[in-house]
Specification:
mainly alpha; 66% helix; 477 residues; single chain; 18 helices; two-stranded antiparallel sheet
C-alpha cells in the first residue's frame, strides 16, 4: 500500500516537472519568435536594460539616453528590477556573442523564467485548493491565456507583477489551509516585496494581503484575544522587515533623486511636460477627468480609431490582443471565451453563496458587529480577498484611462487573472458536484478545458506571433 502511494506521488511529481518544463519551452518559443517592439513599448523598456548593460549603473528617469523623444519621459521612473535582471543575463550572453538579437533574447529570458516560476507556483496553490482534475483545469486557464502568455515573451515588468501575484496568492492559500506560520509569512513577504518592484497595477494584492492577514489573525477563535494581537504584531513586523529588505531601497533612491517623490510619478509627469512633443505633454492631454465627464461615461466611450468602447476593448484585449492592441483574436474565439468565464462567475455566485460569509452559523446577524459568538470563517476572508484582488486592478486600469491617458488595455487588468480563474473553477466544481447526473462527466470536462486552453495558446502562436515574426526574420527592425 505504501509502495503504491509513494509511486503515485513520484509519478505526480514527474508530471508536474514535465508540465513546468513544457510551459518554460512554450514561453521560450514565444520569446524567440516575436519581433522586436511587437508588444507594448518594448523598445522603451529594453533601452533601460541596455543602459545598465553598457554603463553598469542604474539610470535616472530623465536621462537623455533612455528618454523617449515623443513622450519626453522613460520607464526608469518606475521600478526596474526586471530590467536589472535582464542586464545581468545580457552581460552573461556578451561573454559568448554581442549579436543584437541574442542580447535581446537574453533580456527576454528573464520573463520566460518568471513565467515558468509563475506556472509552478500556481500549480502548487491549485493542488491545495482543488481536487486533482480541477487543479489542472485552474492551472491551464491561468497559464495558457494568450493575453497572459504574451507577457512572458518580451521585455517588461508585467511578468514580474504576475509572478509576484502568484506567490502572494499561494501564501493566501497556505494561510487559509494551515494558518499564518512563519514560512507562510516569509513567502507572503517575498511576494509583496517583488510586487512593490514590479508594476503599480498589481499593488492591489499588497493591500488585500493586509486585509486578509489582519482579518484572519484577529478572528482566530482558537486563541485568546491578547495572544492574537501579540502574534499578529510579531508576524506582521517579520513580514514588514522582509518586504523592506527587498523593496525599500528603490523608493529611498527615488526620494533622494527626485526630491522626495518616492514613487517617481510626479517627476515623470514634470519630465514629460518639459521634454515631450507638444501634443503629448500632460498639460495638453484632454482626459475625461479634465473635461468633467464621469468615469462611467469613459467606460462606454468609443473613439473613432477603435472598433469598440473602452470596456469591450479591455475585455477583448484581456483574452488576447497583440502588436500594440492592433491584432486581436477572432470574435468567434473571444466572445465564447468571455461567455464561459461569465457563466463560471455566475455559477460561483449561485452555488457557493456561503463562501462569501464571514461566519459559519446560519442566521442574519453578522459576526463583524462583534455581538455574536458565531465562529468566524476563513473561507469568507479568503473569498473576499480574491474579490478585492479581482476588482482593484480593474479600478486602477479605469482610473488611469480616466485621469491620465486613455488606454483601454486588458494588460493593465491582468493581475486579476488568478482570482478570476479561481472563481470560475470553483463555480464549475460546485455546479458539477451539485448536479449528480453530470458528475460522471467531471473528468472529461476538465480534460476538455485543459486541452482547449493549450490549443488556444498554440493557435495564437501559429496564426499571429510566428507569421508576424517571419515577415522580419531577425525581428530587429
Amino acid at each position: 500500500m505504501r509502495k503504491n502511494c509513494s509511486k503515485d506521488v513520484s509519478r505526480e511529481r514527474r508530471i508536474e516537472i514535465l508540465f513546468v518544463f513544457g510551459v518554460f519551452l512554450f514561453y521560450f518559443l514565444w520569446s524567440c519568435t516575436q519581433r522586436y517592439n511587437f508588444s507594448a513599448d518594448e523598445s522603451m523598456r529594453y533601452q533601460i536594460a541596455q543602459f545598465i548593460y553598457e554603463h553598469g549603473s542604474l539610470p535616472r528617469g530623465d536621462d537623455p539616453l533612455i528618454r523617449n523623444e515623443d513622450w519626453g519621459t522613460s520607464y526608469a521612473f518606475n521600478p526596474i528590477l526586471s530590467y536589472m535582471a535582464s542586464a545581468v543575463l545580457m552581460k552573461g550572453m556578451s561573454l559568448f556573442t554581442t549579436n543584437e538579437w541574442m542580447l535581446l533574447l537574453s533580456a527576454r529570458f528573464v520573463n520566460v523564467l518568471l513565467g515558468a516560476l509563475m506556472a509552478w507556483v500556481v500549480l502548487k496553490a491549485a493542488k491545495l485548493l482543488f481536487p486533482r482534475r480541477y487543479a489542472w483545469m485552474f492551472t491551464a486557464l491561468v497559464v495558457f491565456l494568450p493575453g497572459n502568455v504574451i507577457l512572458y515573451s518580451y521585455v517588461n515588468c508585467d511578468a514580474l507583477a504576475m509572478c509576484s501575484t502568484a506567490i502572494i496568492f499561494y501564501s493566501w492559500v497556505k494561510a487559509y489551509k494551515e494558518g499564518w506560520n512563519w514560512t507562510t509569512c516569509a513567502v507572503s513577504a517575498i511576494g509583496m516585496g517583488l510586487c512593490f518592484l514590479s508594476y503599480y497595477n498589481a499593488y492591489g494584492f499588497i493591500l488585500t494581503t493586509f486585509f486578509f492577514f489582519v482579518g484572519t489573525m484577529l478572528t482566530d477563535q482558537e486563541k485568546a484575544p491578547k495572544e492574537r494581537w501579540k502574534e499578529m504584531i510579531q508576524k506582521g513586523l517579520f513580514i514588514l522587515v522582509i518586504v523592506c529588505v527587498i523593496a525599500l531601497w528603490w523608493f529611498i533612491r527615488n526620494a533622494i533623486l527626485y526630491h522626495g517623490d518616492f514613487l517617481g510619478r510626479e517627476t515623470s509627469s514634470a519630465c514629460a511636460e518639459l521634454y515631450a512633443r507638444a501634443k503629448y505633454k500632460p498639460s495638453n492631454s484632454k482626459t475625461f477627468q479634465k473635461k468633467g465627464d464621469s468615469m462611467l461615461c469613459m467606460i462606454f466611450y468609443r473613439p473613432v480609431y477603435l472598433e469598440h468602447d473602452w470596456l469591450v476593448t479591455v475585455l477583448y484585449s484581456f483574452v488576447g490582443a497583440f502588436g500594440y492592441n492592433r491584432i486581436y483574436l477572432s470574435k468567434m474565439i473571444i466572445v465564447p471565451y468571455l461567455c464561459c468565464l461569465g457563466i463560471g462567475l455566475i455559477l460561483m455566485r449561485n452555488c457557493c453563496q456561503r463562501d462569501f460569509f464571514f461566519w459559519n452559523a446560519d442566521g442574519t446577524q453578522t459576526a463583524i458587529a462583534g455581538k455574536t459568538k458565531r465562529k468566524w470563517s476563513k473561507t469568507g476572508w479568503f473569498t473576499w480577498a480574491n474579490v478585492f484582488a479581482l476588482l482593484i486592478p480593474n479600478y486602477l486600469n479605469a482610473y488611469y484611462s480616466y485621469s491620465s491617458d486613455f488606454q483601454p488595455q486588458g494588460r493593465y487588468s491582468m493581475p486579476m487573472l488568478i482570482p478570476l480563474m479561481y472563481f470560475v473553477t470553483k463555480g464549475v466544481q460546485a455546479f458539477l458536484k451539485r448536479e449528480k447526473k453530470l458528475q460522471k462527466y467531471e473528468k472529461l470536462f476538465c480534460i476538455l478545458v485543459c486541452v482547449a486552453a493549450v490549443a488556444l495558446a498554440a493557435f495564437t502562436w501559429a496564426r499571429i506571433i510566428y507569421p508576424m515574426y517571419l515577415q522580419n526574420y531577425y525581428g530587429l527592425r
